[in-house]
């Protein structure tokens, strides 16, 4: 009773919402150097999380906002990322109906939001995740020390700008990152054009000299259109420079010569979701074209089904297979794990609150 009363009081005073997702199931992976792997795991379709978001009306259309979100593993109860608490999101800012929104902290990049919200029928989760081949690793997903400005929406159009400080002593540019997004969403059409630029330099530390590297640059166009009987998806990404197309697992297949991350590649996705009964079928084809002399291309086919038991609870089944070429080393993972082989299946359930 005391806890419930306190929660109600906090809700009334500061408009704080507690939310979360618990996602767990069985994953089977095949084809990697580790052999056949079958396990209970967490965050297959979407990472299990506990979050707090709040807003305070400051008057004249201006509000103070914040969000704190921690990832955890439902299979064993541990924190998703050791040494951190709110590893998924942690920001505070101001929101104006007329001027837009400015937030500061750890936040999603425009690139990843376009991948997960617009480009991928699997929503960046399950075995068919866009993250298996598109550039989504590390800072491409979230950026720490970031300032993000989002414009108001006008006639369906909006924009986002992200700038993340590298915060390396002795250098104003090492490790910094910026991203841009132009968005359109109206009726059945949803489209985004985004750009991400990550500085890969490291500043000098003591006797260790500075390391200068090429930047990683990603430009992506994503679009989906809801025809009611089917929702169609398309995405194209151009990736250039160091860390523009990371390999999630360094050498998953135990090659004598480990796969090399591409410094110049294109990615294409074609996909669809089809409503069937109380659920929907998810399907996609992704191709990575490595344009370097290594020519380490890869193709992925994926199929899944998400069945809704209610608005907040669902069960799912998914399968994907990657064909690596010329020593490429991409793996079939899911939303929270990179995977260990070239094929995987998932079965599980999720509950949002």
TrEMBL record:
GO terms for MF: porin activity
Signal peptide from the UniProt entry: none
GO cellular component terms, semicolon-separated: cell outer membrane; pore complex
Membrane topology, record value: Multi-pass membrane protein
Naturally occurring in which organism (per UniProt): Duganella sacchari
NADP found in the keyword field: no
Name under which the protein is recorded: Outer membrane protein (Porin)
Main location: membrane
Domain Porin: 5-326
Subcellular location: Cell outer membrane
Alphabetically ordered keywords of this record: Cell outer membrane, Ion transport, Membrane, Porin, Signal, Transmembrane, Transmembrane beta strand, Transport
GO biological process: monoatomic ion transmembrane transport
Assembly and oligomerization: Homotrimer.
């Amino acid at each position: 009773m005391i806890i419930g009363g306190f929660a109600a009081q906090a809700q009334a005073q500061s408009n704080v919402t507690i939310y979360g997702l618990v996602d767990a199931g069985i994953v089977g992976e095949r084809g990697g150097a580790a052999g056949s792997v079958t396990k209970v795991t967490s965050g297959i379709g979407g990472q299990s999380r506990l979050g707090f978001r709040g807003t305070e009306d400051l008057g004249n259309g201006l509000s103070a906002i914040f969000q704190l979100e921690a990832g955890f593993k439902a299979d064993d109860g541990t924190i998703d990322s050791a040494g951190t608490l709110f590893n998924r999101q942690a920001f505070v800012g101001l929101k104006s109906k007329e001027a837009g929104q400015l937030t500061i902290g750890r936040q999603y990049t425009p690139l990843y939001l376009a991948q997960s919200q617009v480009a991928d029928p699997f929503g960046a989760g399950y075995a068919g995740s866009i993250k298996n081949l598109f550039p989504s690793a590390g800072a491409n997903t979230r950026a720490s020390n970031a300032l993000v400005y989002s414009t108001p929406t006008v006639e369906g159009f909006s924009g986002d700008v992200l700038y993340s400080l590298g915060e390396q002593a002795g250098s104003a540019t090492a490790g910094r990152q910026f991203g841009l997004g132009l968005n359109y969403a109206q009726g059945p059409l949803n489209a985004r054009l985004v750009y991400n630029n990550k500085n890969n330099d490291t500043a000098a530390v003591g006797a260790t000299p500075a390391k200068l590297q090429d930047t990683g640059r990603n430009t992506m166009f994503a679009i989906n259109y809801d025809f009611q009987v089917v929702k169609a998806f398309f995405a194209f990404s151009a990736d250039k420079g160091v860390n523009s197309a990371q390999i999630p697992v360094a050498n998953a297949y135990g090659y004598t010569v480990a796969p090399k991350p591409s410094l110049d590649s294109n990615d294409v996705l074609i996909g669809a979701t089809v409503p069937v009964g109380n659920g929907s079928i998810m399907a996609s084809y992704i191709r990575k074209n490595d344009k370097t002399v290594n020519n380490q291309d890869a193709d992925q086919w994926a199929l899944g089904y998400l069945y809704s038991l209610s608005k907040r609870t669902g069960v799912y089944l998914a399968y994907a297979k990657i064909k690596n070429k010329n020593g490429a080393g991409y793996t079939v993972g899911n939303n929270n794990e990179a995977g260990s082989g070239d094929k995987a299946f998932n079965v599980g359930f999720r509950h949002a609150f």
